[in-house]
Queue: 3 jobs
Job 1
Amino acid sequence: MDALKIKRKSLRTSFTATANKLKEYLATKEDAKDGDNLSALNSQLQDNFLRLDEVQNKISDLLLKNTATAAEYEADFEGAEDYRDNFFELKSEIEMLLNKDSGSLLESSSERDVVKLKLSKFELKMFLGDPKEYLTFWSIFSKIHDLEELTAIDKFQYLYQYMEPDSKAARLISSFPITAENYPKAVEQLKLRFGREDLLVQIYVRDLLSLILQNAKT
């Protein structure tokens, strides 16, 4: 496992360097942006993350198999999620820039006052970005998602409205301009980040291990 951790450290350093380059690029003025450079950085970021994620999964499996390192799993998991959050937030911003010419914006990215829809309120709790709450959130929000009477922009407005302000979920969704074309992309990214089956399994295993360790101490 030590060899894997050394490899992960190098991959994390590489990922962070690329992520920082992208953040600097995204902070530049609009007329200074170069689409080819953005695409290259995007490809580099995805390659870095995929290699990092592969090594991380191997480390997680080893930590779970060894009871002596079970307590280490939770801290390791949280650290890995920070990199995943960073990746998905940047990925959303990049996709928004690469596709900015397709579709018209309802409002600028700096102005996110969502229009209140004249529909009856669904009893839906604000989503913070907790994967354990995703299935419950989506089972209710899907009633809005499946309404044929609503346009994609209407559904997008509702989706944004039910994100807890300043949460991981809100940052992910707000990285997409509210357009009809971006709505399915935002829904897909929300599911990839918070509703993946493998992520839920890891979280429930982590919680179970924490419970076992607590009981062992009593």
Job 2
Amino acid sequence: MNGGPPSAAPQAIMPVNGALREVPPSSDSAPAEFYLTDRLPHAMVLDALPYVDPLPTEQQQQVQQLLQQEMAAIARESGGPDKLPDYLSDLPLPQTPVLDDVETMLGKEMARKAKGDPIPELDMSKYTSFSVPSGSKATDVKAWEKTVTTCQQLLQHAATAHINLELMNAHAAASWQRHLTNLTQTKDRLTAATKRRTEEENSICKTRKVQQVEASGTLKQLEQTAQQYKNNNASIIEALGPLTAEVMDLKAKCRIRGILPEYAEEDEFDSEAWLEAVNTTG
């Protein structure tokens, strides 16, 4: 299996324009670029174009069996299903400075998620109720100022909610109608795009079908021509049978009488070639 650099010479791996670049620890030569697929045993299979025709139902089971056999072969080559190769082990982790910074909102949320802490609930008390200072705080000016601020916030929240209700009564129907219109337009656009893609696929399938039909006609014509040649050869061989026997008989008689020409002696009958021709055309 294509592996990474040997353990005796560790190399750094840097992403460069979609490819990965191996950089020796101390080398002035230009680093060699490679793609992750180059490390796969059968990377050339990934360049195969998809087949646009739908998979027949009777072949789905066969395809699943082929996939299972391939997975079993990979596991067998790796020494077991628990020892499958990790093709990403040599690749560096992506840099995420925003997520790694605990001072940012996303960083804090990622840290909370890593600890398994629940999401803190929103404090809605300032929008729903307030308390009047009492007891020792009844004469506390700051406590009363805080209470007044809370009351003002509640009044502002109620006023905003009232304005929102009035706006909803005045514009909700038209806004909802525009939303439905946008959804309808989006649906029509996606439907048209789907139809266009389907027509393109059908066009590809039709073109391939026409090419297959034309190729089938050419193959049939060539097959008929080959069969015609075979029949002609068979007829010729059949006609040559008596003539060959007659020639052999005449050669034998001339040889007995000693009048067979020298060139006729060299023209010997090849019985093996004759039998091969008969079997081929038979």
Job 3
Amino acid sequence: MNTAVITALASYVPRTVAVHREPGIEPTLGAPMRSGWHAWVASWQADYVRYSTKKAASAGSAAIGAAPDEFRCVPVEGDTDLSGLAAKVAQTICAARPANAAPIDIAMFCHSSLNEHMSTTTAGRLRTVVGTPCFPSSVSQQQGASTFTALQLADNLLIAEPEIHTILIVAAEKWCPPFSRWTDQGIVQGDAAGAILVERAGPASYGMLVIDACASRLDRFRTHTPLSSQDIPTDWVPALRLTIDAMLLRHALQPNDLGTVVGAGIDPQLEEAVCRHLSRRVVEFPERCRAHLGAAEPIVQLADALESHDLPVRERILTWGIGLGGFVGCTLFESYGRPLLYRNPP
């Protein structure tokens, strides 16, 4: 069979930290540069005040009295770099695979943030984690829509290349100075990582069958107009509706043929509009933060949905997301049993 099926997912979201909004490019630490891997990573860590998850709510309450958008509780990784986040979720999936499992043929890395350790190529590090004969590649510049493009590529590769059987898609984001977590529109970007194992479906396959996946660009962003909250009803909602409706039409499906709809979680107004269009209620997750997790967002949201909701066999699941640079994407799955799920591995 040429059909792709997701057999395992891993997601990692670090502890929440209260982050102060900087007016522009964030300053680096003033400590002198020292040699060595750990010293290099430490020198790039932002000067954030750590809060545990339990204290995040009180930190958010304390920030209410401050200036608007001055503080936001955001997942911040302080112990490793971007490649380390990607390796963490990749190792989790690889370590759990049976010894006689088919080797992973391709590793795709999705991201929009840069690795602070410039000598490390994250896709190359993933090849080391996975081992030979893995071919590493990267999908970037589409932010939260990158994972949908990677799934589309994986699905096409399994159709076009009969010798390919297993593809690992890894998405990770870590923001560090001098790049600000804050966009001009007040959206704050958090750190996270996720991985999905895509395999060629067989008679005994279990997991989530990939029916379709796609990503597209908003036409208006050819003029590089920045995103604002006013754009949600005029640009983002229509673009998502068109993308989702076109996907359903390709497979002769109606909105009532869908079971679960998993959104991006970036903006309540956007999520409510899409669910209203599909006559579905918004899926609520406990302890959901409103930070944008970039390329890792679709995998993290899907893992949360699988953790908190029982999916009946043959139920269709629609996931959608956006890239802040002007991209939208969605994927249509069909459930054939719950894939292996690993959340916040050590």
